[in-house]
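Supplementary Note 2. Why include the ligand at all?

Several targets in our set were suspected to adopt different conformations when bound, so apo predictions alone were not considered sufficient. For every target with a known small-molecule partner we therefore ran a joint prediction. The input for zinc ion is given below.
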Amino acid sequence: MKWKFVLKIADLLRWIWKDEIVFDENGMQWVLELDGIDDRSVLIKLLDFKTESAETCDRCGKQFKRLVKIPEYIAKYTLDKTEFEESTEDVVFMIDSKNETIDVEELLYQASHLDDPFVIKCPDCEKSDENNIENNDDFDTL
Ligand SMILES: [Zn+2]
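The joint prediction is reproduced in token form.
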């Protein structure tokens, strides 16, 4: 999956400013709330992020599309390199200071991998697993 979303945020840095962007295209949906918190950083709230992720089943090798849903993901974009490097708890990205833009692509990319399953299974393998678990349960109660 390849995205190209670069936002101009000069206004957000110059004034205390809020903005909202709604995106719905090619099976991908999200809402971005942008909040210029000071002249060095912008807080970004990604809401209702839905997309399809192309996956390969770990078990049978089949290719399938998995629906990814992230209700909320918050990140900060900053001009401050130290903050970017030293932040441990928050998700922090750099603002492109030359162009005064932020790369939303990296935010979407990270968010879309938030709830990646440990083992990727296609719906068929998922289903056969569920059946097996049910069968095992029956066996246990006998
Ligand atoms: Zn499979």
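Residues 6-141 form one domain. The longest strand covers residues 41-56. Comparable summaries for the other entries are listed in the accompanying table.
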